[in-house]
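pinned: reference chain
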Amino acid sequence: MKNRRSRIMKIASAKGFNTVAAFQPENVFYLTNFWGEAIAICSYDRTSLVVPKLEASRAQQDSKDCEVIISERGFQLIDTFINAVKDKVVCADYADYPTVEAIQTKASKKHFIVNTEALLEGRMIKEENEIYAISKAAKVLDDLYEICTHEIKIGLSERALQAKIIFEAMQMGANSACLKSTLNPLIIASGPNGALPHAQVSDRKFVDGDMVVVDLSLRYASYIADATRTFALGTTASETKEAYELVKQSQQLGINCAEEGVVCERVDKECRALISYGGYGNQFIHSTGHGIGLDVHEPPWLRTPNQQVLKRNMAITIEPGIYLNGKFGVRIEDSVIVDNGQAKNLNAFTKDLLVLG
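pinned: its structure tokens
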């Protein structure tokens, strides 16, 4: 935790701040090892954790290398925070508008500024224990894809497959990533639903000829791995095979390209160029990848334009796709670690087209 504090404060000080405040659970955890309702305050010489009474015992038990300050909930918690950062120049990751207004009214706007860059930049380079946790999460995903090969059958619904996967994942020690932008913990998208990159899981039942997109983002020991496999069910049309092969080649090209020192947009352009050459450029409708860690989606972003340089021990995804509206979708995704040579792929489950049923 002390190394993290030093790294975060070095970034923050270069931006004119002498204190960093974390309100978001992911950032609170990053600074203190506590995941819950709290505010983390990081300065050059210490980290403090302001918690309401109901979280006090758990905070004292789970937190590392920080002072736990106990307060009441609501505005008393905010007053405790304001007193703790008095006369400091604070950058905060994010707080809702009423909270920001209350703090700036008492601490002044020039001393409390919402700026997420210090924490997000600091989190981009993963430590060994973080890479280990992401690797374990990726292994869980591989095991779940093996289960999919036995479960995906004509007549099974998307929702039923999701329920089976979540049950098995929790048996393995994993948890849902809990995205705010979706009603479901996973993406299970069959047939025409697969043409929607972020499809909501439905009661649609699998039929002969379906392509079934299974996108798994799960958390293990607080850290997330993200992978996607697309399965064929029964009769497979030549068009789906062609699209699948293009995506598979594009994805491998992206992994080969994602080396230390390469800019993010180059990876995106390499993947996109191959799919465009194959005639499906307009059907590749999202970026090539993103960072992973405590969030499913975090910097760096593998998109165009983006001159962000990939660095050793960044954790990213490579996930090109082709989506034909009303027909089917194909996406292949792995979680990888950037190295000084070829990126280390954390997912080992086959990317050959598996025809099930």
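why pinned: The chain has a mean pLDDT of 96. The CA atoms of residues 224 and 277 lie 33 Å apart.
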